[in-house]
Design a protein that fits this description.
Strand order of the largest sheet of chain A: 1-3-2
Family (chains A, B): Belongs to the peptidase M32 family.
GO molecular function, one term (chains A, B): metal ion binding
Largest interface: A-B, 36 and 35 residues
Pfam families (chains A, B): Peptidase_M32
Number of strands of chain A: 3
Shape of chain A: globular
Oligomer: homodimer
Largest sheet of chain A: 3 strands, mixed
Order of helices and strands of chain A: HHHHHHHHHEEEHHHHHHHHHHH
Radius of gyration of chain A: 23 Å
Function (chains A, B): Broad specificity carboxypetidase that releases amino acids sequentially from the C-terminus, including neutral, aromatic, polar and basic residues.
InterPro entries (chains A, B): Peptidase_M32_Taq (IPR001333)
Number of helices of chain A: 20
Strand content of chain A: under 5%
Chain lengths: 499, 499
């Protein structure tokens, strides 16, 4: 009864999906609401539910059903079955003692990293980070064997299903070749133009929050199925039909919060646009982290850091903070210049759109070499600093501003970094295709009407769930294979153009 | 290996406890944070985790371990084992198709009740309420058989373990005899004194909230292990080490919110004072709903609606709302008169301390008669109205203000009502014993120092968890068996006294 086996699998996965939804709310609460004294108890509750999910996923009945289940060729159920298989292999490939050893290693390393980063003390972190790397390599080998992939591709597949080094390497090679020249050209172009006027002042948090809600709603966020709150590190989380984004506010700088809200709204629109009929099923989940990042960067980089967007936003910003319409610092043009300012720096999360890929390229080179065993962990700081020097021309003064700045490696998220730049590339390609298919979109953005853009994205990206691979989604949406053409054109046009 | 069996049981129950903690946060979020569109998905997540708890509780391994486990006589582990057995019997006594039928019936009836109450339309609710009553009687019969209890006692035991009708009946008989006379005496006494001056004005919610936090903290609430938020119906929920209370604010009346916060803080202090070494174990949970209510009523009725409390609170209230010290409406005496005003009315949740028991007596009489089959549900409205007439002298004008006002019966919480008044009685007995043991407590309250009172309660009530029965906790704490003496003396002294 392959039909019945498939139906039973849907029931099983729906159950897992509902526990995951619970975990999404518990995780949000941990970062947004939870009092400090509840941390240990919450960690235990989250661990218990995570283990339950893992037990349900790896139960013998699951393997038995997967071996027998069938779905009609070309149906969404067939894609769902494929995603079930993928999830099952990922869950069962790693023996439970290795899962536990890795979890312990990352917990300890993450804790130690907070101190090591503050003190710029790589040496103190080295033993714990070595343990994390070794366990990550063990996991990569186990998953690689089960999936028929190289070690690094197996790690990548956790975050970006189907994406391989062979997809990334040629793209990143182009970028590595062009980026230094592009940065030089952008800086030269910028130097020929007046610097943006500063936006000094004190901007009440309540008004910044109201502004964020106005922007989210304008972009298409459904407030009846989500929330906006505050956390130290902004994120998009929550559950199906309950998509929760966060931001943080600084009295002295509202543009950071605005851009942060727009970014997380891009993620949230993807989640809110997933097909309701596939709810709680693997095929109904977002495709992967690069496509997810494409949605946030499409909204933040492609849309919000543009002149049409600022034409709409400038009057709204002036009204929000009671600024006169003729204040030159509050003109659309000055906002545009402010949010497209290029300034090479040490910190990835503070980087502008042009220099950001350099940070990713350096980390990708290093993490592939570390996973492959071509680089020793003790040599990481020198190699990191050499990479930054080569691409950005900067001399890293301390590991705090260098290889210790990100939580990804201490927390075991190896294979994650490339998805940021792959997402930026996809965002450019999708935006170009949307503007081509519906030339009315840019003018609509200039009026604060984002419905045409969302109408283009909804069926082509959001409603696809995980039915196709990321490249196939891009191909179907844009009519062309994934390529860096639009991305490089975008950077040239915006940052090295004649204006 | 009875020792190993016991240890395994602790592990099993800890797992269930952690899922319950997760459910506590999900339930809090549902009422405080969740956007409306997430209701269906949340209900599914909560149902999935509830079923998981039930599966873990009723698994064959649990019965096997319970049959083999032993713990040293007189140890807390022995009490834990007894509570495990109790939980197991409650969970396994009811066949799963009856659990499901009851859950379906209560869901439908609760939904219909909202409309029926609004429209005062008992007839429309009758078929659904009949279904709920029938399923509740089935559950009562099944649990009664497993526990060796009568049907109603089995229902009571769900909310107040160990309490039986034989404990309640004599107490309620005394009250039924004395209450009409007591109410008359209180009203006559009240009429001989000036009416309280009205506290008119608009009181900003932010200040009311700050006031609530000040009061909670003064009473001993640990803000690092809990929160205060807003919900439509105030409650105390959350999880171990994460006790969350809610209130609601009205611009025109801050005393309601203050008293509500004090009430929920009483519940929360109990939860925060449960023994950490028994965390996630059945013996580490609060004893039952009557003792829980005793803690909230001790703080609200015994402590906060008193002259010493108002001597401390009056200046704080004046400062909070910028009122002159000599405003007679804002004197301690006027606050005291306001919060001890007696006014017979139709709505239980709005009732004062003197008339409240009448509402409970009526409901207790009716629900025991309905469960026993001595009363037909179609006769409920008339019987309800007759009960209110007899005890309060009021003619109920509509079922909205009568038997349709509470959610308890439609939602299947039969056997809950008596715990309110049993708790009020325990609160008076505990307060009297505390004041006797430490005569410095009243003066300390007058200075806003609640530490001596909490120091008395912590070891005697909170840290007992579920080690003893409720009567044994009362006996050990007060040196006397449970009795209504202190309660009736309290009502006479406060409401019919010479002052």
């Amino acid at each position: 009864m392959p039909q019945q086996a498939y139906t039973d699998l849907e029931t099983h996965f729906a159950r897992i999906g509902r526990i995951r939804n619970a975990l999404g709310i518990l995780g949000w609460d941990k970062d947004v609401m939870m009092p400090s004294g509840a941390a240990d108890g919450r960690a235990e509750s989250i661990a218990t539910l995570s283990v339950l999910c893992h037990e349900l996923m790896t139960s013998p009945v699951m393997g038995d059903l997967l071996a027998r289940a069938e779905a009609p060729a070309g149906s969404w159920q067939e894609a769902n079955l494929r995603e079930m298989q993928r999830a099952y292999i990922h869950a069962t490939a790693v023996p439970s003692d290795l899962v536990e050893a890795s979890s312990r290693a990352t917990s300890r390393c993450e804790m130690a990293w907070r101190t090591a980063r503050r003190d710029s003390d790589f040496a103190s972190l080295l033993p714990l980070l070595t343990e994390v790397l070794e366990r990550t390599r063990d996991i990569a080998a186990a998953k690689g064997a089960a999936l028929g992939l190289s070690a690094y591709d197996a790690l990548l597949d956790q975050f970006d299903p189907g994406t391989r080094r062979t997809d990334i390497d040629p793209v990143f090679a182009e970028l590595r070749r062009d980026l230094p020249g592009l940065i030089d050209a952008a800086l030269a172009h910028q130097d020929r133009r007046p610097a943006p006027l500063p936006l000094a002042g004190s901007f009440p948090v309540a008004r910044q929050e109201g502004l964020g809600r106005t922007m989210m709603t304008a972009l298409g966020f459904d407030m009846s199925r989500g929330r906006l709150d505050v956390s130290i590190h902004p994120f998009c989380g929550g559950a199906e039909d309950d998509v929760r984004i966060t931001t943080r506010y600084e009295q002295g700088d509202f543009l950071n919060a605005v851009m942060g809200v727009v970014h997380e709204t891009g993620h949230a629109l993807y989640e809110q646009g997933l097909p309701p009929e596939w709810r709680a099923q693997p095929v109904g989940q977002a495709r992967g982290m690069s496509l997810h990042e494409s949605q946030s960067l499409l909204m933040e980089m492609q849309v919000a850091r543009s002149r049409p967007f600022m034409n709409w936003a400038a009057p709204l910003l002036r009204r929000t903070f009671d600024v006169a319409d003729d204040d030159p610092a509050w003109s659309a043009e000055n906002f545009y210049r402010t949010v497209t300012r290029v300034r090479p720096g040490f910190i990835r999360v503070d980087a502008d759109e042009v220099t950001y890929p350099a940070h990713v390229l350096v980390r990708y080179d290093l993490e592939t070499a570390l996973i492959d065993g071509r680089l020793a962990l003790r040599d990481l700081p020198d190699a990191f600093n050499a990479g930054i020097k080569a691409l950005l021309g900067l001399t890293v003064p301390s590991d705090r501003l260098g290889c210790l700045q990100d939580i990804h490696w201490p927390s075991g998220s190896w294979g994650y970094f490339p998805t940021y730049t792959m997402g930026a590339i996809q965002a450019a390609q999708l935006r170009a295709a949307a503007f081509r298919d519906d030339p009315a979109i840019p003018d609509a953005i200039g009026r604060g009407d984002f419905a045409p853009l969302l109408a283009w994205l909804r069926p082509r990206i959001h409603a696809q769930g995980s039915r196709l691979s990321t490249p196939d989604i891009i191909r179907a949406a844009t009519g062309a294979p994934p390529s860096t053409d639009a991305y490089r054109a975008h950077l040239r046009d915006r940052y090295c153009g004649p204006e």
